[in-house]
Amino acid sequence: MSNEFPVVVYGASGYTGRLVAEHLRDLGVPFIAAGRSRARIEEAMKLVPGIESARYEIVEVEHTVESLTRLLKGRKVVCNTVGPFMRYSPQVLQACLETSVHYIDTTGEQHVVTMMRDEYGAAFARAGLALIPSMSCMYGVSEIGARFCLETPGIDSLDMTEVAQAVPTVGSANTILDAVRHASYYLKDNELVRYPGIETSDIATPSGRVLKASNWGGTSNPIWFAADGRVRNCKMSVAMWNQELYKKELELERAYKVQFQWIPEDDLPGILDAMARGITPAMPPREARQVHRAIDVCFATGNRVAVKSTLISTGGYFTTGLLQAYAARRLSVETPRVVGFRSPSEVFGHRELMGALESYGYAAIKVEQVA
User: 3-class SS at 127?
Assistant: First the structure.
């Protein structure tokens, strides 16, 4: 295995891993495509557009700290796409510390994000390494819109919504179920306040259509902005154009509270994974950009000021693949501006991330001064 490959895509045989590989190829970044099955990775790479011109190697690796440490030695950054992240990220994080490798993943579930902050953030900071979860469509993109609003002095409250058209991947379905059994929070008057459960609300799309939304595990935004002295309140709700998904989420929460919360922890993963297959039994087909679109709105207020950002994006998993590849490219050649547990925009800049999305035609943003 050559040291000429600075980036590792871990979980390269999965839906998101393939898209990260596709965008690394497009950006001209050599990479290691890694995972637990060489045969599955080989099949997945055959489906990546333009892969014949990419510089990459395939590596089969066991999911242990020891094996991952050997994999990461001499690398610069790992893009981890293997979820549920509460179950599988600690081994990767520890291997990063052992090898001085920056870490990026796609998760925005609060229980995972806060675990990373509390258990690994200080160690990554001491090592001069960046630990960046939420480099993905729902979480990294919504943060960009909020930070555009925060450019206006006096803003202290962020009311965030997203409407998306998406079919969860197998890993995403597993992660959604994993989040159902953990507490989530929103930021109110400088305090993180716990949701009593899955909270549903009605939100209006820009066209005026009213959809049911949920708190979707709280999202990572209240965690980021609780550490920002400018922000007093932050809450985010997510609606799917396919309204059956929020109903499924509520059904899963009820099933957990009634049937599964009494089951021993070691027995739960198999049960939850079987339930997840009821949401997404197999890898979904490649996204269609004319179909899979999202609208992120942040209505930001202060005492005498109000700003609204509207960010339109297309192909959520395409967007995730680009964000991961862009971040990996920069970390492979740069010293990050900040280290430790940090948000995507803190490390790379919200305007720079937006520029990357715009350059691929994946997103556009409008920021309006309301008052």
Answer: coil
In a domain? residue 1? no
Whether 90 and 143 map to the same domain: the answer is: no
pTM: 0.91
DSSP bridge pairs for 366: 310
Note if the bond before 84 is cis, omega within 30 degrees: yes
The parent domain of residue 270 ranges over 137-316+357-369
Would the pLDDT of 42 be above 90?
yes
Nearest by Cα to 138 from 175, 101, 95, 102: 175
Is the same domain home to 154 and 101?
no
Q: Any long-range contacts for 253-260 (C-beta under 8 Å, 24+ apart)?
A: 253/180, 253/197, 253/198, 256/180, 256/181, 260/181
Q: Over the stretch 224-250, which tens digit does the pLDDT of each residue have?
A: 999 999 999 999 999 988 777 667 766
What is the reported pLDDT for 206?
86
Q: Does the pLDDT of residue 292 top 90, yes or no?
A: no
Q: How many Å is the Cα radius of gyration of the chain?
A: 20
> Is the distance from CB of 11 to CB of 82 less than 8 angstroms?
yes
Shared-domain flag, residues 302 and 231: yes
CA distance 65 to 94: 7
